[in-house]
């Protein structure tokens, strides 16, 4: 990303969006209408959406696209429409006895133009959810989708042009040089979803403008399987979280910590899940491919590094087909922190499994590393879960499952530290893309009128209110 590369068409587009917003800030009726028309347009095009995303990936499960990109976006829009009137209503707050009979409220007011930089792994979901949230908050939006899914970016441009005028929603396409210039624009808020490394560059590019940021980054999200939890059920839910979208999910379980005596049972249970889901894996229709050659080579590099260290690498079924970017689910047993696979977010269908002797050891391992975007504790007894929750910190948690906290519209989604800052989804996103404006209404007659020199005349009154 190079924020100094000139891309002259971006600033005029931002200026046009801002001028239109200042000329007429979206009312409740317009926001509701915009969201409904966006929903209707996406619903009509779900089939085209799935086939377009599949073309960008080389092959992507149609049903995974419908679930992860279609359902989640539609569900979020429904949630925004259902709650928008209440969220827009000013919230009365107490003023305390010292400031009576005045009154106070907090108003959620739109900020202007929100920039959205969306990634390739869920190219519709992660573009439209922040975009729809910004619309609900009364803003105009400038979207920069990923260059790694160019067909889907064109699909988004066409979809949004069908729904919105050009001075309300705009789309910029292009590579890293466009992304750098985009992040450096003086937005009123900027939402970025992507890697931690690129997130640092986005933050640096936005810093001169003091642009408020929501950074949804990644990291190594751990799963902890406590000894009392059924191995077979843990394997089934880990398999879903890890193999959905070929592991190309920012909150996919990145590694598993399991009791030493149960590790091999977990490996066998994952092997059985592979057979149940994909059969011989000769031509898996329901298994998504790696997005591009660069990502495929990166994942193979992790496996080559693991083998060079003498680690046990288990391909659960089938074989890799580089020409199709088909990489089967693969396990790496007992990697040390020096292995490349434990130093970087995997973002693929490779699952390291590490043995631990106690839950305390698992917690200590998690805490010795960057705070993750997601955490997945598996335990039957609530006490063990509470111990994990009390002693660790992550962006979000699904207990006894994976991924699903992302889809709960009432839960804020966001990281902490290296996994991000800020949050969105539902009310959290609406508040993040609004200014929470405090307003104090002074009464006609108030004791505050007495607070003026000479203070010697009101010293007893001052003593009373500062007690």
Commentary on this structure:
By secondary structure, the chain is of the alpha/beta class. It has two domains: 10-217 and 420-439, Aldehyde Dehydrogenase, Chain A, domain 1 (3-Layer(aba) Sandwich); 222-407, Aldehyde Dehydrogenase, Chain A, domain 2 (3-Layer(aba) Sandwich), CATH 3.40.309. The protein has 15 helices and 16 strands. A seven-stranded mixed β-sheet has the order 10-11-12-9-8-13-14, with helices on both faces. Helix 2 (28-44) packs across helix 6, helix 3 crosses helix 4 and helix 4 runs parallel beside helix 5. The longest helix is centred in the first third of the chain and has 27 residues, at 62-88. The chain is globular and about 85 Å long. The N and C termini lie far apart (56 Å). 46% of the residues are buried. Mean pLDDT is 95; it is low at 1-6.
How many strand units? Answer: 16
- Mean pLDDT equals 95
State the helical fraction: 40-55%
As for the CATH topology of the largest domain, it is Aldehyde Dehydrogenase, Chain A, domain 1
* Name of the CATH class of the largest domain: Alpha Beta
The secondary structure category is alpha/beta
Q: What is the CATH homology-level superfamily of the largest domain? A: Aldehyde Dehydrogenase, Chain A, domain 1
- The percent range for strand residues is 15-25%
Outline type: globular
Quaternary structure of the protein: single chain
Span between termini? 56 Å
Instruction: Write down the domain tally.
Output: 2
- Rg (CA only): 25 Å
Q: What does the main sheet amount to?
A: 7 strands, mixed
How many helical elements? 15
Strand order of the largest sheet: 10-11-12-9-8-13-14
């Amino acid at each position: 990303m190079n924020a100094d590369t000139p891309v002259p068409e971006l600033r005029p587009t931002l200026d046009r969006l801002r001028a239109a917003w200042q000329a007429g800030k979206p009312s409740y009726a317009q926001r509701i209408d915009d969201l409904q028309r966006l929903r209707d347009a996406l619903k009509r095009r779900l089939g085209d959406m799935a086939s377009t995303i599949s073309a960008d990936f080389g092959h992507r499960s149609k049903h995974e696209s419908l679930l992860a990109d279609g359902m989640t976006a539609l569900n979020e829009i429904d949630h925004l429409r259902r709650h928008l009137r209440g969220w827009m209503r000013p919230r009365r707050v107490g003023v305390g006895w010292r400031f009576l009979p005045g009154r106070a409220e907090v108003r959620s007011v739109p900020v202007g133009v929100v920039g959205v930089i969306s990634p390739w792994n869920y190219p519709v979901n992660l573009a439209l959810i922040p975009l729809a949230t910004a619309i609900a908050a009364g803003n105009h939006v400038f979207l920069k989708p990923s260059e790694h899914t160019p067909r889907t970016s064109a699909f988004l441009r066409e979809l949004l042009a069908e729904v919105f005028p050009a001075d309300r929603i705009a789309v910029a396409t292009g590579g890293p040089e466009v992304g750098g210039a985009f992040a450096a624009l003086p937005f009123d808020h900027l939402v970025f979803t992507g890697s931690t490394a690129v997130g640092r560059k986005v933050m640096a590019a936005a810093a001169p403008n003091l642009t408020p940021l929501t950074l949804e980054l990644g990291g190594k999200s751990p799963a902890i399987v406590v000894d009392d939890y059924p191995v077979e059920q843990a394997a089934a839910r880990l398999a879903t979280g890890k193999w959905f979208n070929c592991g190309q999910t920012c909150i996919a379980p990145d590694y598993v910590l399991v009791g030493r005596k149960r590790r091999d049972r977990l490996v066998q249970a994952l092997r059985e899940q592979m057979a149940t889901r994909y059969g011989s894996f000769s031509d898996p229709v329901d298994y998504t491919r790696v997005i591009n050659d660069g990502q495929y080579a990166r994942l193979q590099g992790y496996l080559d590094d693991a083998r060079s260290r003498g680690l046990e690498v288990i391909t659960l079924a089938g074989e890799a087909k580089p020409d199709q970017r088909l990489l089967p689910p693969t396990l790496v047993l007992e990697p040390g922190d020096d292995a490349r696979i434990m130093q970087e977010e995997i973002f693929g269908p490779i699952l390291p499994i590490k043995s631990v002797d106690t839950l305390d050891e698992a917690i200590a391992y998690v805490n010795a590393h960057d705070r993750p975007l997601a955490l997945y504790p598996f335990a039957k007894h609530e006490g063990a879960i509470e111990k994990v929750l009390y002693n660790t910190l992550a962006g979000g948690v699904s207990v006894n499952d994976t991924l699903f906290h992302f889809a709960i519209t009432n839960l804020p989604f966001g990281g902490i530290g290296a996994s991000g800052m800020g949050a969105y989804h539902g009310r959290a996103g609406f508040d993040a893309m609004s200014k929470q404006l405090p307003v104090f209404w002074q009464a006609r007659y108030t004791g505050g009128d007495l607070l003026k020199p000479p203070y010697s005349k009101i010293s007893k009154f001052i003593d009373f209110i500062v007690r």
